Amino acid sequence: MFQIDHLGIAVKSLTAAKSIYEKLGLNVSPEETVEQEKVRLVMIPIGESRVELLESTSEDSTIAKFIAKRGEGLHHICMRVPDLAATVAKLKTDGVRLVSNEIKIGAGGHRYVFVHPQSTAGVLLELVESSHENRP
Ligand code: ZN
Predict the structure, then answer these.
(1) What is the pLDDT of residues 36-69, one digit of tens each?
(2) How many Cα atoms are found within 13 Å in the side-chain-facing hemisphere of 77?
(3) Residues with Cβ within 5 Å of ion ligand 1?
(4) 48 CA distance to ligand 1 middle (Å)
(5) pTM for the model
(6) What are the residue ranges in the chain where pLDDT is below 50?
(7) How far apart are CA 97 and CA 87, in angstroms?
(8) Looking at the domain assignment, is residue 135 inside a domain?
(9) Which of 121, 124, 131, 133 has its CA nearest to residue 8?
(10) Residue 97 within any structural domain of the chain
(11) How far is Cα 86 from Cα 67, in angstroms, rounded to an integer?
């Protein structure tokens, strides 16, 4: 089943950005650093989906470059798909531009791939095969 797994938002400060969710009474996860992505993040479960707040830990990270260019805001949408390998193969056949041609394995062991904004009307699209916790 296709589902929105999470919405990734690039922020300058996790502390500042998460306060609105805390004021709304939502549970914000503890902050976690993901070294390979050069980000710190929190996850906020909202119904069946989540919001992911991403703060850069390095000036040359993807998130820092995004904020420098476009400011804070929606960075990516993450969609859960039933069969990631089949989905990626289909997209390639259809000429869809992916950020990387190979499926990547994240720190938590989950498999993911990013579809380039050029092929998605401007919003980076992350595809994962199953739910992943606390990961960008
Ligand atoms: Zn994400």
Answers:
(1) 789 999 999 999 999 999 999 999 999 999 999 9
(2) 11
(3) 8, 52, 78, 136
(4) 15
(5) 0.88
(6) 131-136
(7) 13
(8) no
(9) 124
(10) yes
(11) 33
| Ligand 1 centroid distance, CA of 25 (Å) | 22
Domain that holds residue 16: 3-129
Distance CA 119, CA 107 (A): 26
Q: Give the model's pLDDT for residue 107.
A: 66
| CATH classification of the domain holding 80 | 3.10.180.10
Q: What are 80's two structure tokens?
A: 């859960």
Spatial strand order in the sheet of 49-56: 32-34, 39-46, 49-56, 3-11, 73-80, 124-128, 111-115, 104-105
The contacts of residue 61 (CB under 8 Å, 6+ apart) are 37, 38, 39
Q: How many domains does the chain have?
A: 1
Residue 114's contacts (CB-CB under 8 Å, 6 or more residues apart) are: 76, 98, 99, 100, 124, 125, 126, 127
